[in-house]
Amino acid sequence: MSFRTSPKLSAPLEQGGPPAEYVEDVSPGSGALPPRAWYASSDARSLSLNGSWRFRLSATIDAEDDSFAEEGYEAGGWAEVTVPGHWVLQGDGAFGSPIYTNHLYPFPVDPPHVPTENPTGDHLRAFDLPSDWPSDGGAVLRFDGVESCARVWLNGTELGEFKGSRLPHEFAVGHLLKPGENVLAVRVHQWSAGSYLEDQDQWWLPGIFRDVTLLHRPAGSVGDFFVHASYDHTTGEGTLRVDSDVDGRVTVPALDIDVATGESVTVAVEPWTAETPRLYDGVLATEGERVPLRIGFRTVVLEDGLIKVNGRAVLFKGVNRHEWHPEQGRALDLETMREDVLLMKRHNLNAVRTSHYPPHPAFLDLCDEYGLWVIDECDLETHGFTEQDWRDNPVDDDRWTPALLDRAARMVERDKNHPSIVFWSLGNEAGTGRGLTAMAEWIHDRDPDRLVHYEGDWNCRDTDVYSRMYAFHDEVDKIGQRLDGGTHKRRELPFIQCEYGHAMGNGPGGLADYQELFEKYERLQGGFIWEWIDHGVKHPELGYAYGGDFGEELHDGNFVCDGLVFPDRTPSPGLVEYKKVIEPVHIEGDGANGIVRITNKQDFADLSALAFEWSCQVDGETVESGSLSVPALAPGESAEVKLPEPPVDGRGGERQWTVRALLADDTLWAAKDHVVAWGQFAAGARPLPSFPATDRPVRDGDRFTLGPAAFDARTGALLSIGDVEVSAPRLDVWRAPTDNDDGAEWQTDTRYGMLWRTLGLHRMRHRLVAVEAGDDALTVRTRVAPAAREVGLDTVYRWTSDGERLKLTVSVTPEGDWTVPLPRLGVRFGLPEADGVEWFGGGPGEAYPDTRTASMVGRWQSTVDRLQTPYLRPQENGARADVRWVELGGLRIEGDPEFWFTARRWTTEQLDAARHRTDLTPGDTVWVNLDHGQHGIGSQSCGPGPLPQYFLKAEPAEFAFVFSTTR
Ligand code: IPT
After folding, report:
1. Annotation says 499 is catalytic
2. Is the beta carbon of 201 within 6 A of some atom in ligand 1?
3. Nearest-5° angle of CA 807, CA 813, CA 818?
4. Fewer CB in a 10 Å sphere around the end CB: N or C, the chain?
5. Taking each helix axis from N to C terminus, what angle separates 511-520 and 573-581, rounded to the nearest 10 degrees?
6. Which domain of life is it from (predicted)?
7. Quick one: which atom of ligand 1 is closest to the CA of 102?
């Protein structure tokens, strides 16, 4: 077939209906009404057509004719699906399965053609028009989201067809409605020309996945309207003007506003910001309808090279959010959307990029209400064309421009009345081209009061911000200093990272280092973590499935599991870390002088919503606490506050201060006392365990005894401590590589996860050199090295005892030319049983050298099972940082110095081999790692590896542990 170009956004329906070729037609469709604002009327009737629909799946677009759409068609034998929903996630596999690819098109790149095998779902819904449905006016049928192409009939009459999966499409149907039963028929094709524009990194999930609604349109009802509500920070006044297709009046009782549409009114208002989301309830009333308004006054401008809202530069602490539910896919219910917003607010986030398509509109209502800055992104990505150097890229081909403009218009018109939206984004990863420029021009013209974002054009031809993804720290530093060059236009623009901190598996590392840069340079206005949620699909055998688990011929594995929350929305350690890194109040202390310095890092709000609390810990246990009076500092202000006299403690333990900022009252998003920020600082140095080596090793047959311990006399291996039998501690340098250790294949910097395996660090051999019983120590000398290599670690275990306790001092001396850092350095041993765990050190969650900001020193309790972080693809996890001592399995272990502690019911080798959580089954031994060092985590699964300061270099090291029994 040939291209048909359409100069209009949405062509009128042709006589006789469109040809079947509409599927591969690059035009956006035909028959639909022009796009307009999305709203819920106060008084016009509506009827949800969500629910159970009749469903028939065909393998191709023409396997069945369209007689099913005719009146009287008998579909009693058909299956059923739930709308909204994706058919591949229903029917227990009977309706095909999801496909996951990152950027590769799962079909030949042959635009606009799609495969003959094109799953096609015929949907039928009979509904009764309520008997009191008004007979005046008209009616509109609205589809909020259908992937990827739909053709629609009502009562046997064809309405049209459309593409643009995550955008609304409306049809005028008043003339077709009948009293009593009506039948809506929808034919949905998985693949269409539109699929070329929807190559986002996510599951391909066909279906009617958002609401279907019938809307009564009374005579004189509101059609489209545009709320313009600006704020002048110099006067404290807001100006409101509501433009409406149909004339009417606008009232805002709290502001005594009652004006005609199209008229401006200026009054004193409280502005809307993400920190102070003040909304004013209003009403737009026309002759035929009343529409509730939620008005937020704010002004977004580009000024002095900065993104300013209400006169102040903002710092985005954001995240990229795809819509995801492990069972419903992208068909989210309101409560799930609210959960996302609540979790974001509770973790100090202030911004969302709706990657990579406009979300369900209800999500934007929540952003308005709870307060989140939004980059609303268009449903556009053509990433797969990168495989052919962007040849034939639709965004640089005029034939596709109407489709691009249609998408831009459907986004802007639908969402334009949300104060939370500060940026329109043209799309993601679509290269560059004239189509993007056309979109940007149209958007700038239609809505000059917001800014335009697009990452793919580093020259910033069409955008109001220089945006990048996964730029390394050193480049971001340069950009902050304006030393990055670029076009003249780019040099004038502020910078954001629209994606960074790739939250795949364990990580992301290095967030605190980015935040430091964002806070240091004015030009850097923050960033958006990639991404919010792991797109794991609930699976009966695998727990959660990822790419490849449905037998896809092309897939990108667990690259789809890279969120700050697990599929069930449990926060991962990455989210906890991010919360701490971006906290709105900075609390640092000078413990020796009893002074705490508090800084308000917000952009708009003072500190009056927060209460402060101090506490003092001795050996991790709180001995005293009280409230701390902190002035209601304005944004950017700091104050020093004196702490009370530290409590006197005779035990001479380790003392520290903890200061917390809590919500002073209940808010919409969290209850009073919710911890927003905290700081911790030492009030004195940690006393190290003192240990006089008084005992000498005694030979007893094939054993040595030393204090409470027994050793194999031949190998020097520790056998037991008191009555606790152990599998002897040995040097361990291996960890099950994380996604970030492995790194993405396109990363150009060294990927150490690969090198570690090549070098053989996962199969180290331990050669016994000598077992020496001296006067006060049993010394075991070994050399630890991988087969086939000359590098090794000369390792000496020196055992001493004070009669009660046992001390192990490990000395490691690298031999040969070590060109790679070590994954970890410590000892691993086995315990026959252990369940409860108590420790004094960092917690409560996992931490690694560059993910440890949120690790709070204290006394923590857990269990071996709960210490595990259940990454969807199993990998190194669960280390606790700065551990002074830990008790488990009848042993107490004290570190000199502090150590990293990990315990699990499987070996590192089993963890490494597992592909899903369900591959891990507890064995008889609890494996404990006591590490002197861990290599950083970084974000190399897409982005930089760990910064050099987080490398665990192969260097001479000495560290010790003191063991005693607790029973
Ligand atoms: C970037 C994409 O924009 C995003 O959709 C996602 O794929 C992310 O990467 C990785 O998870 S593109 C990147 C490969 C430069």
Report:
1. yes
2. yes
3. 140
4. C
5. 20
6. Bacteria
7. 7
Instruction: In the chain, list all ranges with CATH 3.20.20.80.
Output: 302-580
Displacement of CA 874 from its chain's centroid (Å): 19
Q: What is the pLDDT of residue 300?
A: 98
Give the tokens for residue 456: 């793919």
CB 348 within 8 A of CB 317: yes
Q: Whose CA is nearest to atom 12 of ligand 1?
A: 429
Q: Which residue has the tokens 């028939």?
A: 56
Instruction: State which ligand 1 atom lies nearest to the alpha carbon of 355.
Output: 5
Cα of 235 vs centre of ligand 1, distance in Å, is 43
Copy the structure tokens of residue 397.
Answer: 């081909």
CATH class given for the domain over 700-965? mainly beta
Q: What is the atom index within ligand 1 of the atom nearest the CA of 942? A: 10
Query: Which of 469, 562, 745, 940 maximizes ligand 1 atoms within 8 Å of its Cβ, making it the mutation to test the pocket?
Result: 469
* CA nearest to 41, candidates 126, 137, 127, 125: 137
Q: Which three-class secondary structure state does DSSP give residue 477?
A: helix
Determine the 3-state secondary structure of 879 from DSSP. Answer: coil
Q: Looking at the chain, which residues constitute the CATH 2.60.40.10 domain(s)?
A: 225-299, 584-682
CATH topology of domain 21-217: Jelly Rolls (2.60.120)
Q: If the chain, 967 residues long, is cut into consecutive pieces of 10 residues, what is the mean pLDDT of each piece?
A: 34 44 95 98 97 98 95 95 98 96 98 97 98 94 98 98 98 97 98 98 98 97 97 98 98 98 98 98 98 98 98 98 98 98 98 98 98 99 98 98 98 98 98 98 98 97 97 98 96 98 98 98 98 98 98 98 98 98 97 93 98 96 96 98 82 91 98 98 85 95 97 98 97 98 94 96 98 97 98 98 97 97 98 97 98 98 98 98 98 98 98 98 97 98 98 98 95
Structure confidence at residue 137 (pLDDT):
87
- The Cα–Cα gap between 310 and 307 comes to 10
Q: Please pick, among 198, 323, 499, 531, the residue that the annotation labels catalytic.
A: 499
CB 384 within 8 A of CB 105: yes
429 lines ligand 1 (CB under 6 A): yes
In this prediction, residue 11 carries a pLDDT of 42
CATH assignment, 584-682:
2.60.40.10
Evaluated on CA atoms 572, 575, 581, 583, the torsion sign reads negative
Outline which parts of the chain fall under CATH 2.70.98.10: 700-965
Task: Determine which one of 158, 413, 429, 455 is catalytic.
Answer: 429
- Is residue 148 reached through a cis peptide bond, with omega within 30 degrees of 0 on the bond before it? yes
Residue nearest to atom 14 of ligand 1 (CA): 942
Q: Is 398 helix (H, G, I), strand (E, B) or coil?
A: helix
CB of residue 469 inside a 6 A radius of ligand 1:
yes
State if residue 102 touches ligand 1 by the CB under 6 angstroms criterion.
Answer: yes
C-alpha span between 145 and 206 (Å, rounded): 10
Q: How high is the pLDDT of residue 20?
A: 67
Domain range 225-299, CATH class: mainly beta
User: How many Å lie between the centroid of ligand 1 and the Cα of residue 595?
Assistant: 44
Under DSSP, the state recorded for 647 is P
| Residue 469 Cα: closest atom of ligand 1 | 15
The Å distance, Cα 303 to ligand 1 centre, comes to 30
Q: 428 CB under 6 A from ligand 1? A: yes
Q: At what angle do helices 334-346 and 361-370 cross, to 10 degrees?
A: 30
What's the rounded Cα separation, in Å, for the pair 383 and 356? Answer: 12
Predicted pLDDT of residue 645: 86
pLDDT of residue 203: 98
Ligand 1 contacts CB of residue 101 (under 6 A): no
Question: Is the pTM above the cut of 0.70?
Answer: yes
Is 562 near ligand 1, meaning CB less than 6 Å away? Answer: yes
* CATH fold for domain 302-580: TIM Barrel (3.20.20)
The protein residue with its alpha carbon nearest to ligand 1, atom 6, reads 201
Closest Cα to residue 294, out of 275, 276, 281, 278? 281
Residue 744 CA: which ligand 1 atom is closest?
14
